[in-house]
């Protein structure tokens, strides 16, 4: 099982021993979750998809799946292998309240509007839980970022990935429920930027070229939209992206 660039980047942004439970939502064939399970990224890995035709064979595959040895070997006692569980349900219905500890919800591969809906539902239903979100939506990133700003999410990390001529923004966020959220005067997290901040700061030449290409592509898209309705709103978006420094 080899991850593509997008899933590999998402996987790399999950820090081991940070979370008690990780939820791989819209898990599809489960490649990301199995990578997390293999490297023991958390004591509990949850695979979530609303499509039974995906979850049922994935459950059978996981029953045969044997993770590698734990990420570290304690001289006195080996660490317990990560446990896994599959869930065939809507992301908005995640039973996060049944589990303790800090949790990470990964939502990747769905549109920006659905991502907004899922995040709002989860935060509304679990106002007192410590939840981080790792997002990789398709389209409508600017609109999503506006909602994240309104929800006072804290930016932990973000990245830009190009795979098969498609660009993806990936955001790791702390919800306002967390003590380190931007609401807290001692917060270590940055506020979410309307157009991205760390997103454009790739050090390698290839990353810089990708960032420039993505910025030009995004600006071209919104400039075409300026010819249609809601001109004033689109003008503001174009102005925000024109302020990006590469």
How would you describe what is shown here?
By secondary structure, this protein is an alpha/beta fold. It folds into 2 domains: 5-71 and 79-200, Rossmann fold; 202-246. The chain contains 7 helices and 8 strands. It has an 8-stranded mixed sheet with strand order 3-2-1-4-5-7-6-8. It is globular.
Keywords for this structure?
246 residues; alpha/beta; Rossmann fold; 2 domains; eight-stranded mixed sheet; 7 helices; globular
In short:
About 35% of the residues lie in helices and about 20% in strands.
Give the helix proportion (percent range).
Answer: 25-40%
Oligomer: single chain
| Annotation, overall tally of beta strands | 8
The count of domains is 2
CATH topology term of the largest domain = Rossmann fold
Radius of gyration: 19 Å
Q: CATH first level of the largest domain: which class? A: Alpha Beta
| Beta fraction | 15-25%
Query: CATH superfamily of the largest domain, please?
Result: Vaccinia Virus protein VP39
Main sheet makeup: 8 strands, mixed
Helix-strand string: HEHEHEEHEHEEEHH
Would you identify the regions where 5 or more consecutive residues have pLDDT less than 50? 68-78
| Averaged pLDDT | 88
Structural class: alpha/beta
